[in-house]
């Protein structure tokens, strides 16, 4: 794999500082640095799925010698004499810490697309990393020329298909109805007592003793000399009451229905696609180099 990379020649394409990435490009090769070997292999795998089959990953594991990748001279030899000293040191320092380099062979018309795909996988900005690793001072980094800007490509979250398809979804709203309880009406029967009065005439029978004088002749034989008693019964009416009951009314419950119209307000989502065509700029090679 390293032998395949020996012919890669640097021509220095980069992304803007905002995107924090720099690429080495020469002829038909694109090279990028990643912080981890897993990230490099993920980028390489997605590039392969996108149709770029000639992809190499260089790391301490693939070289087989951790001491070798620590030497800037190894990277200068691998990528050619035109690789900047600070770039070789960034490769050496970061690959020794577990990073990896991805190199892709592509047709000239696809070079910018490959660079954009690598950028989407968050390849390292070599100039910014050189400042972070104290290889370059910020003042020195400001003088480094960024020669070629790679075309950004949308980040790759999943493996790419050669015929990529975006499925568009749209929501719709269906309105139904259900019965809910809104309240209860209850009838309760109970007893109350109300004072009443009613008048009635009462009659009484009393005994009254009366006497009167008479003067009638009588014979001794006719006189009843036995003791005698007479009596009369006195009566009086007293009131009494009795109660009767009758139904005087009815109270009942029943339901009745009424209809009305309700309007449901909500939002539905739909997906749309904006098409943006990004044309790649011509690849600028360093002075003295020509494209084969």
State the end-to-end distance.
23 Å
* Sequence of secondary-structure elements: HEEEHEHHHHEHHHEEE
Range of strand content: 5-15%
What about the largest sheet?
4 strands, antiparallel
Helix content: 10-25%
- Overall number of domains: 1
Number of strands: 8
> Helix- and strand-based class?
alpha+beta
Radius of gyration: 58 Å
Low-confidence stretches: 1-27, 147-161, 280-292
The outline comes out as rod-shaped
Output the strand order for the largest sheet.
2-3-5-4
**Total helical segments:** 9
What number is the mean pLDDT?
77
Structure commentary:
The chain has 292 residues and is α+β, with helices and mostly antiparallel strands. The chain has one domain (1-184, 247-292). 23% of the residues lie in helices and 9% in strands. The chain is built from nine helices and eight strands. It has helices spanning 2-5, 37-49, 60-63, 66-69, 72-79, 85-96, 111-120, 126-132, 138-142; strands at residues 13-14, 24-26, 29-34, 55-58, 100-105, 148-149, 204-205, 235-236. Strands 2-3-5-4 form a four-stranded antiparallel sheet. It is rod-shaped and about 190 Å long. The two termini are 23 Å apart.
């Amino acid at each position: 794999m390293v032998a395949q990379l020996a012919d890669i020649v640097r021509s220095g394409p980069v992304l803007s500082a905002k995107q924090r990435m720099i690429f080495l490009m020469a002829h038909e090769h694109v090279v990028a640095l990643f912080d981890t070997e897993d990230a490099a292999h993920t980028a390489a795998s997605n590039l392969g799925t996108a149709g770029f089959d000639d992809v190499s990953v260089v790391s301490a594991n693939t070289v087989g010698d951790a001491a070798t990748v620590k030497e800037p001279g190894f990277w200068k030899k691998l990528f050619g004499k035109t690789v900047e000293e600070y770039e070789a040191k960034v490769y050496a320092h970061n690959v020794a810490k577990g990073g990896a380099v991805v190199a892709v062979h592509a047709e000239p018309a696809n070079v910018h697309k490959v660079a954009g795909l690598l950028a989407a996988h968050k390849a390292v900005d070599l100039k910014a990393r050189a400042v972070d690793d104290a290889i370059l001072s910020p003042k020195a980094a400001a003088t480094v020329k960024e020669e070629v800007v790679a075309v950004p490509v949308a980040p790759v979250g999943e493996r790419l298909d050669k015929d990529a398809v975006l499925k568009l979804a749209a929501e719709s709203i269906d309105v139904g109805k259900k019965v809910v309880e809104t309240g209860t009406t209850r009838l309760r029967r109970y007893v109350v007592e109300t004072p009443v009065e009613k008048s009635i005439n009462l009659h009484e029978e009393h005994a009254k003793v009366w006497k009167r004088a008479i003067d009638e002749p009588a014979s001794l034989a006719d006189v009843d000399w036995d003791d005698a008693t007479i009596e009369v019964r006195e009566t009086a009416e007293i009131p009494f009451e009795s109660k009767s009951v009758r139904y005087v009314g009815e109270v009942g419950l029943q339901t009745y229905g009424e209809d009305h119209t309700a309007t449901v307000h909500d939002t539905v989502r739909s997906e749309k696609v904006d098409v943006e065509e990004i044309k790649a700029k011509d690849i600028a090679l360093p002075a003295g180099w020509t494209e084969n």
